[in-house]
Amino acid sequence: KRSTIQWERPLHFTGGNSNRKSSKYFQGCYAWDLYKQGGVQLAYDPKMDRAVFIIGDGDSMTVVGRKLSGRAHKWHTYHRAGATPVLRTGTSDTLVVVEDVASACVVAQTYPCLSLLSTSMSIEDLTTCLGYGRILVCLDPDAYSKCVQIAQRVGPLVGYACAIRIPNDLKYFTPAEVKGILECSSQWKLT
Strand order of the sheet with strand 134-137? Predict the structure, then answer.
């Protein structure tokens, strides 16, 4: 659900490195590298025990948290306004579409990446894809049929879209491994 209300960081949020578990989680998905480049803000929510990703600002901002312990839902959306911003460290005509923000942080070390925060693509996310020449859809392995549907939906609009069957969630790989998986799976040399 998208919001038109401005989000304010809760006072109880602390820095992303203020908790050992959140710091380790961010390190494991290369979020610190992206943070140092200004691509994402990181925080810790001690009330909900979540590692929090703050992406974008103003009218286009997404704030999600990953549960670090317990049995509650894995992901929690604190705020979502406008299209989910693309995470990037460089420029490329290829956009990689993934399911969650942690995977997007790993992928963004090499290619621009859009996190759907689910397995479905909104109109706002589809509009974001129009700015790229190639779309690689890499949802988690259990969502490959959704991956194919999204690639079929986006392909006619951008010229090239490919559903890639990945061996595991991309957040479990290094950026170099992700680059290898994407280049081996794509019919095109990625730029």
Answer: 113-115, 94-98, 134-137, 160-163
